[in-house]
Amino acid sequence: xxxxxxxxxxxxxxxxxxxxxxxxxxxxxxxxxxxxxxxxxxxxxxxxxxxxxxxxxxxxxxxxxxxxxxxxxxxxxxxxxxxxxxxxxxxxxxxxxxxxxxxxxxxxxxxxxxxxxxxxxxxxxxxxxxxxxxxxxxxxxxxxxxxxxxxxxxxxxxxxxxxxxxxxxxxxxxxxxxxxxxxxxxxxxxxxxxxxxxxxxxxxxxxxxxxxxxxxxxxxxxxxxxxxxxxxxxxxxxxxxxxxxxxxxxxxxxxxxxxxxxxxxxxxxxxxxxxxxxxxxxxxxxxxxxxxxxxxxxxxx
Amino acid sequence: xxxxxxxxxxxxxxxxxxxxxxxxxxxxxxxxxxxxxxxxxxxxxxxxxxxxxxxxxxxxxxxxxxxxxxxxxxxxxxxxxxxxxxxxxxxxxxxxxxxxxxxxxxxxxxxxxxxxxxxxxxxxxxxxxxxxxxxxxxxxxxxxxxxxxxxxxxxxxxxxxxxxxxxxxxxxxxxxxxxxxxxxxxxxxxxxxxxxxxxxxxxxxxxxxxxxxxxxxxxxxxxxxxxxxxxxxxxxxxxxxxxxxxxxxxxxxxxxxxxxxxxxxxxxxxxxxxxxxxxxxxxxxxxxxxxxxxxxxxxxx
Amino acid sequence: xxxxxxxxxxxxxxxxxxxxxxxxxxxxxxxxxxxxxxxxxxxxxxxxxxxxxxxxxxxxxxxxxxxxxxxxxxxxxxxxxxxxxxxxxxxxxxxxxxxxxxxxxxxxxxxxxxxxxxxxxxxxxxxxxxxxxxxxxxxxxxxxxxxxxxxxxxxxxxxxxxxxxxxxxxxxxxxxxxxxxxxxxxxxxxxxxxxxxxxxxxxxxxxxxxxxxxxxxxxxxxxxxxxxxxxxxxxxxxxxxxxxxxxxxxxxxxxxxxxxxxxxxxxxxxxxxxxxxxxxxxxxxxxxxxxxxxxxxxxxx
Amino acid sequence: xxxxxxxxxxxxxxxxxxxxxxxxxxxxxxxxxxxxxxxxxxxxxxxxxxxxxxxxxxxxxxxxxxxxxxxxxxxxxxxxxxxxxxxxxxxxxxxxxxxxxxxxxxxxxxxxxxxxxxxxxxxxxxxxxxxxxxxxxxxxxxxxxxxxxxxxxxxxxxxxxxxxxxxxxxxxxxxxxxxxxxxxxxxxxxxxxxxxxxxxxxxxxxxxxxxxxxxxxxxxxxxxxxxxxxxxxxxxxxxxxxxxxxxxxxxxxxxxxxxxxxxxxxxxxxxxxxxxxxxxxxxxxxxxxxxxxxxxxxxxx
Lengths: 301, 301, 301, 301
Known about the structure:
12% strand; three-stranded mixed β-sheet; 15 helices; N-(1-d-carboxylethyl)-l-norvaline Dehydrogenase, domain 2; alpha/beta; 57% helix
């Protein structure tokens, strides 16, 4: 078995994912707007293509991993896009993190062409992509999910079907709102403790050990206290993801006041020039708001 | 060694704490406004007293565990209170969760009388108190903290000195703002997923396994999805604690926008008649806001 | 002088605006997807057209008044749209309220064709459109604004050039965030006063007479106290406008926490089934949040 | 008729109010902790006193105008306070802005002594006090309000009875939350317009003329655009008043999310060192949040 696979989007995430598919025995032909990315796939044992059409010719599986919904719309639905030349029966997996609305449009357009579609955004970052330990949140039909299992096994550690088309995106959005909000809460806790003259390290140890405990407190409290905001996952990306969460809420007709405020704080981080810092830099926003920016600046030296 | 100990406030938390001190070999004399509570201590091997003065007579250690700052102010600083008759050199531990401002006043008043004071609010709830596994957040001087170690060992699992007087309260406040905020975020995630037609149980499993993971997702996601809001820790108490967090922020001159909004949502829970429900009932507030109250109501049957 | 004018979009707002242009001596040919709307223009002294191309043939001025940015993008930039057949030198005015991003795209596409473009969203509602007293917020070049003056005089009371392309939309967005936020603040003031047993009518009179005074307090306090939420301007439309305000903030890279929260509250109004009520129905959202929904319901009878 | 009147608290507000009572024919004896303030009253035709007891001896009317609730509690209810020596039947008016809870306590304590009590916080500032054009929000009984009319006429332009004891404070709190919130909304509108390259002065003119119009836009838009934050009413005082609004909400058991966020933004202004600036300096907070602090700083030169 050597499944012919077309892979569109060979960037920071797509490149190691495609390489892991090659390692797992898939026959991968890839395309990217950026030629060196295509060359990299060839070096990893795949085949480079000069267009989407060439990449997906004869493919049983087509994969996209693209930055945002306009890229997906163009590469899949647009002129020269996947759905122009894709064969009926093809399994199409979009690993991009985009708004659910576009995933649903793609699924409907796929259905009209007999293509089996999954939205499958991931978490775990570049490191998770390289190590093939991504978490994969999937929307689509159960039998399509079952068919995609070998792909998910090749690139990830865990994959779960969360509902119909778009559900993967909604769960990813839910994940990002909880992550962003938790950083913002921990940031406010730190600002409060430090301003009150408390030993914040001792305080966070107590929080981490009780009901306030979280993966973020476990992994990030030391770096936050040290004002080490090297990414990690950049504010700019989290800003994009909060936009998706608010789009999803608007689509689902629900009001999310806390999420809305967290999105504003992440937008503030970006506006304050922290876009390329780790999302834990929400701490700097919380400090600046309380006129305590000196601390982050001082620690940064 | 059988340390003579006066214990003021034998309610839901104080009663098992006093009993655990008796078990650990302390000679405990207790007082409570409510006579049956005093009788319970006697039944557990302690001694009942008819007044604060009687309870603390000859005590080397004096402990208070009271509902709110006015009770502490009255019982410690007021007429007939602890500091009227306490001996210099006494170790005074206030386990109550109150605003840092009052803890600092108490510490200063104690210092003026030669009393060694710690503020030591706890988390872990009634069950933690009974099982002697409380987490204890302490403010005060290092040598006083060291002297109090046998008391903390008798009632808790972990105790940490977090800074000068009031620091225990600030850390407890920080803990409660993170806990309240995390519930509110998880609630918004659930509302979003359910409204979008996603399998929220599958979605929360994904969140729990990644960077969004938390003690709350681990322990409470099943009960939240089932709309089982039996306490646990009541909204009314969390409302009191958010008031302390906002007081602490005001005292420390920091602005906590997210904490402020979370406090408003917990106030809303209370205003909606959920004061005696578990704090995870923030989910019902999030649902009501989006006109989805039917779901909580239906599940509640 | 009888300026040949093409008018696309003859709905609730566009229909009376087109009629007012006819009254002012413009020679108006109009098109709408909805045939009865076209017939209405003919009855008012204009000419009906069966397509955009027909409506704008030979026109010196082309006007659009459409519901949202996708409609404008399609009708102006899309296949069969205005810019396919428009003559260079034409004055093009878009009265639609849409996101600034689309207005800027339209202005750029117009410039490439030698078309002079203004974005010119209005306030004043259906009544303002009928009475030709709209307020018109304009983005574009000063000489184009000057050229459009006769059009603005025919449909509005006041028009102001607020900056380059897109500026009209930004000012409209700013207007709507202040209006929505003011309703929400007045709603919280009313809820507080009523819950505290205060005579809210007397209280609002005091507010209206001092620094808290506003057009909204002046015009709407009586109807709000009476829970009379007949539109007026519907929550659904304000919800759309808050989406534009948040899009504009994202585009301008600014963080607007209060606006974000107001948008969530308006989304809540919609989710609670108040979408077709006046935007002053934010009072019902504020009441529901505090478990006081009975009052609005009772008054509604 | 020359009503004997005791006046406690002769600060920035109390001093001109007492002088206006003298002008109106009242026989005023005043006391203040600060001796020069007492001398000033004597110079204005009143009589100075060395204690509260001396100031109110034989008085038919007793007035307090003090900074915050602890001062009122001490001066009225405390040792040596008004209620120790006040005669039954005296009319007692507290013009201080304090939390409703304390006003209610004072009213109850007054009732127990046969004293007729009103809470009567004012707006209009120092200038309004000097010019005797204050707005007076009153809580208490109708017949007491009627009896106080000559006092109100001597110091204010308008006085309204808003309900039972504490109602004046609640209305003042409602006023302050609307004022603070309106500044914050206008600030976000300005930040959005300026960041988007819009002529904010032209934009605010449009807002001021429509449904977004307010006293604040009318009086303050020019100074805000010029970043002229000379008080006026200081952030520190508005911060105190937002604390009262949140206390009042807590007491009335209502959730005010927008008010909570506005209070956090005003706290931020203070934390950023703007406590002695006008409350319109909320604009600087909004700018800093979006990393645009240069503008306020530049304009400030």
